[in-house]
Structures are given as C-alpha cells and as structure tokens.
Amino acid sequence: MRLLVLVLLLLSACxxxxxxxxxxxxxxxRQSFPETQDDLDESRTLYARKCGACHRVVLPAxxxxxxxxxxxxxxxxxxxxxxxxxxxxxxxxxxxxRPGQPVxx
Length: 105
Ligand code: HEC
Prior knowledge:
By secondary structure, this protein is an all-alpha fold. Helices cover 56% and strands 0% of the residues. The site of heme C has 16 residues, from α4.
C-alpha cells in the first residue's frame, strides 16, 4: 500500500500540468479558426489522452508554435488519429503555444 502511494506520487510529479483553457484562449481560437466551433476543453482532453500514451504529454509551450503543425502531422500517424481529431489537437496546441503564453521548463 505504501509502495502504491509512493508510485502514484512519483507519477503525478512527473506528469506536467497541461495548461487549462482560458477565456482569452477561447477568444484567440475563435478569431484564428473562425470556421470551427471546437470546444477547446475537449480538445485538451483529447490531446492528453492521445498524445500522452507513448511518452509524457508535451507541454504546448515547449514546442514553438510554428513547429506544431509538422509535429502533429508526424505524431498523428503514430497515434493513428482521424483527421478530425488531428485538427482538434492541433488547434489546442496552437492556441496554448501562441506567443505570450508562459514557457514551462
Ligand atoms: C505510438 C507512440 C506515440 C504516440 C501515440 C505519440 N508519440 Fe510523440 N513521440 C513518439 C516517439 C517514439 C518520439 C521520439 C522522437 C521520434 O521518434 O520522432 C516522439 C516525440 C515527440 C515529440 C518531440 C519532438 C519530435 O518531433 O520528435 C513531440 C513534441 C511529440 N512526440 C508530440 C506528440 C503528439 C502531439 C502526439 C499526439 C498527436 C504524440 N506525440 C503521440 C511516439 C509517440
């Protein structure tokens, strides 16, 4: 039991906290992707689930915004994502990695 608690503590210490979606994120995303009505919260959950399976989920701000489309294209094949999910994940990471967002070490 004590071991289980220790393992859980270590695991939670290693998992970076994905930035939650703020109101300014929603405004930015609405302006940047006017053709979609995505729920960014759902995209964030999708990102955590699909992109944290093989490695720890990468904080959006730790990849330059301009690199994300390429990274998501490459990783979407590995994660066997459908196009619609790939697009939703890309919109979340682009929103959360836009300039002005804090970079977490
Ligand atoms: C099937 C396993 C797997 C899944 C699922 C996966 N990745 Fe990866 N990822 C890897 C491996 C392996 C690497 C190591 C670098 C490489 O081989 O390209 C990596 C590396 C990365 C990197 C480091 C930069 C780079 O391009 O090498 C980022 C960022 C990344 N993944 C993001 C994602 C995102 C976003 C998703 C969800 C769409 C995702 N990963 C899903 C296996 C996976």
